[in-house]
Amino acid sequence: MSGLVEVTREGRVALLRLNRPKQLNALNAALAAELVATVRALDADTSVGCMVVTGSDRAFAAGADIAEMADMSAEAMSEADYFGEWMDFANARTPKIAAVQGYALGGGCELMMMCDFAIAGQGAKFGQPEIKLGVVAGIGGTQRMTKLIGRARAMDMHLTGRMMEAAEALSAGLVARVVPDDEVLAEAMKAAAEIAGYARPVVRLAREAVMRAEEASLAEGLLYERRLFHQLFGTAAQREGMAAFLEKRPPRFNEA
Ligand code: CO8
Fold first, then answer.
1. Of 20, 85, 106, 138, most Cβ neighbours within 10 A?
2. Does the CB atom of residue 139 touch ligand 1 within 6 A?
C-alpha cells in the first residue's frame, strides 16, 4: 500500500481518507486499486460494522485522473478493464457512507454514488463534467444518478456538465443529509457508529434489500423483503433486539 488511502479505526467504524489532496484526490489507477483492495479487506473483517469514505476540505474527489487517461487508446482501456474493479467497491456488503466536502466531480461523484448514502457539506459541489472532456461517465454515473435523481435531472447534469450545489443535491435526492462543512465528518462518523452498533448480519440484509429495489420488480422486491423478515425470527439479533425493547434496556449486539 502506498498511502493513497489512509485508514483509521474508531471502534467498529473504519474511516478511509483519499490522500492525493494536491490533485484534488483525482482517482488514478494506483489510488483506485488501493481503495478497492482496502474495501475488500475491511468488508471481510467481522469487527468492521460500517465504513466512512472521505476526501479533503477542498475535494472529495475531482474525478478520474485526466493526466493519466489523456493518451490512452480504446484498446488499452479495454485491456486494463480500466476501473472495472470498482464493482467490488460498490458491491461490498458493509455499508459505506460518503462524507463529502468540496468537489465531487466525474468519477468522484460516481464514487460517492457507489457508497450507500452521502452526507455533504453546505459548500459541496457535484457534477458529471465528462461531456466537456469529450467522453461520457464510466463508473456508473449515467445509471446510478438516473436511479437516484430521475431522468430529467440526470440528463441536465450529464448533457450540460454543470455543477449542482449541496442544497439542490439534497432536494434532488443525490445526498441524504447536508450539514455545515466543518461538521460533515463528525456527522458521518456518528451515523456510521450508529449503524455499526446494530447486528452486522441484519445491517447487511437491510442494505441488500434496499439495493434490490433498484433491480427487481415491486412484487419480487416485496417478496424478497418479506422472506428476509421471516427468516430473521429466532436469530440472536431478533431475540436480543425485541427482548431489550420489552425489558426497557438498550440492546447489546455484536458482543460475541
Ligand atoms: N485529474 C487530474 N488532475 C486534476 C483533476 C483531475 N480530474 N482535477 C484537478 N486536478 C489537478 C489540477 O490539474 C491541478 O494540478 P496542478 O496544481 O498540478 O496544476 C490541481 O488538481 C488543482 O486543480 P485546479 O488548479 O484546477 O483547481 P481549481 O480550484 O482551479 O479548480 C476544479 C477545481 C473545478 C475541480 C478543476 O480542477 C476541474 O475542473 N477538475 C476536473 C474535473 C473533471 O473534469 N472531472 C471529471 C474527470 S473524467 C472522469 O471522472 C471520468 C470517470 C470515469 C472513468 C471510467 C473509466 C473506465
1. 106
2. yes
Taking the alpha carbons at both ends of the chain, their separation in whole angstroms is: 31
SS3 253: coil
pLDDT digits (tens, 9 = 90+) for 206-242: 999 999 999 999 999 999 999 999 999 999 999 999 9
Supply 188's cell numbers: 458521518
Residue where the block lists cell 431475540: 239
As given in the structure block, the three cell numbers for residue 210 are: 434496499
Q: What radius of gyration, in Å, describes the C-alpha atoms of the chain?
A: 19
- Model confidence over 102-133: pLDDT tens digits? 999 999 999 999 999 999 999 999 999 999 99
Contact between residue 49 and residue 13 where contact means Cβ atoms under 8 Å apart? yes
Closest CA to 36 of 87, 70, 78: 87
For residue 140 the three cell numbers come to: 456508473
Whole-number Å distance between alpha carbons of 230 and 77: 46
Which residue do the cell numbers 454515473 mark? 141
The residue whose CB lies within 8 Å of the most ligand 1 atoms, and thus the one to mutate among 4, 18, 23, is 23
> For 1, what's the count of Cα atoms within 13 Å in the CB-facing half-sphere?
14
248 Cβ neighbours under 8 A, 6+ residues apart: none
The SS3 call for residue 80 is helix
Among protein residues, the one with the nearest Cα to ligand 1's atom 27 is 24
CA-CA-CA-CA dihedral for 104, 57, 118, 197, to nearest 10: 150
